[in-house]
Amino acid sequence: MERLPGFRDFYPEPLPQAEPWSADARQYIFKKWRAAAELSGFREYDGPPLEPLELFTTKSGTEIVGQLYNFTDKGDRQISLRPEMTPTLARMVASRERSYKKPIKWFAIPQLFRYERQQRGRLREHFQFNADIVGEADAAADSELIALLINSLRSFGLTEADFVIRLSSRNAWHDFFVSRGGLPDAEYEFYQIIDKLEREEPAKTAEKLQKIGFDLPSVQEFIDRGEPTVELAGVMGDLQARGLGAYAKIDYQVIRGLAYYTGIVFEAFDRKGEFRAIAGGGRYNNLIKLISAGKVDLPALGFGMGDVVLLELLKARALLPAFGQNLGAFCIIESEDLRLDSLSLVQSLRESGISTEYTLVPAKSDKQFKRAQELGATHTLRLVRKDGGSLEVRIKNLATREETTCEPAAAPCILRAALA
Ligand code: HAM
To answer: What is the spatial distance between Cα 300 and Cα 292, in angstroms, rounded to a whole number?
Structure first.
């Protein structure tokens, strides 16, 4: 039976055939994301993968609503798989806001589901690193968040030659929109046209703009001028002070597709422009108020970085390590009358933190040795009964072929030292 289109299987490496995904690569990415978030003082949270449909339909905008995996459950509830994490975070913060000191700095790595047209960099399921700051209106929070985005990408070995954060501002676009006589009802539509500017035919964009009273040349002129707002200039200065200035630039072509953004917005792209956006985010100062029906009013901002484009980019830049099993020891059971004592040895090795394998059923010694090599074990251990009936352990380093002998009780300690 085939898997659903746009979904992935995650096999352990080495993979029998070339596939972009593996369980090891996924784990590697998650570890780096977590480490970067924790280094900047962010705490991990999570929410349910299924939410009431309503959480997503009113707040995120038409684009994402068209991509929902929604259905009616057995209790007649209208529900949906989460297409993004931000509404869930807003709901969670709103309901427990008083229990947490501000600013709240939280991160999550949810699996998200969007019924999108499957294409390069876009699937129907992906994992997304989300980092958000709630309760701080000052642009210092925007800089702190963008610094985390840059640092997390750098932790994979990517440099300023590989990626750039394109910084923009919904405020700047709002001022442009209002100053040219744009009508409030058409504002989100206008943002969506700008959001698609790079991917759409200019003639089509011009036609759409014209319908709501705008023209492409003046939009293009505003983008080309790229005059930073006071806020954006502050963020650039902050990033420069951290030594991260080369990783960001002002670019008003970015506006973000989601409806709830209110201030600074940004997207991370590879410098060569080969891939879709690596990450995107911005301020959403009204979302928590909207979701809590006015009960809680907190400014917020955040970003999401998907695993799909990131992995494509890391592969293309040869920045992924070789994955495989990391086995410390393989216990060879040379004769079945040594099995119970061998199991005791295996248990003591594992208890001391050494990953250990052994044969589940009787097998010839050379077969076991071969298996140890296949699994990438660094050492083999085997119990040997001495003439007086007592046991000793022979530890073999598979790289140097050196063999050490010791008492069974000393084996974990000796092997741990060898592995260190
Ligand atoms: P987004 O731009 O929709 O933002 O998604 C963020 C990132 O998730 C994208 O840049 C991309 O890397 C990845 N992504 C999105 N859709 C797919 C897909 N179908 N397949 C693979 N990767 C995908 C948000 O979701 C916002 N909620 C982010 C945010 C957090 N804003 C504030 N806080």
So the answer is: 14
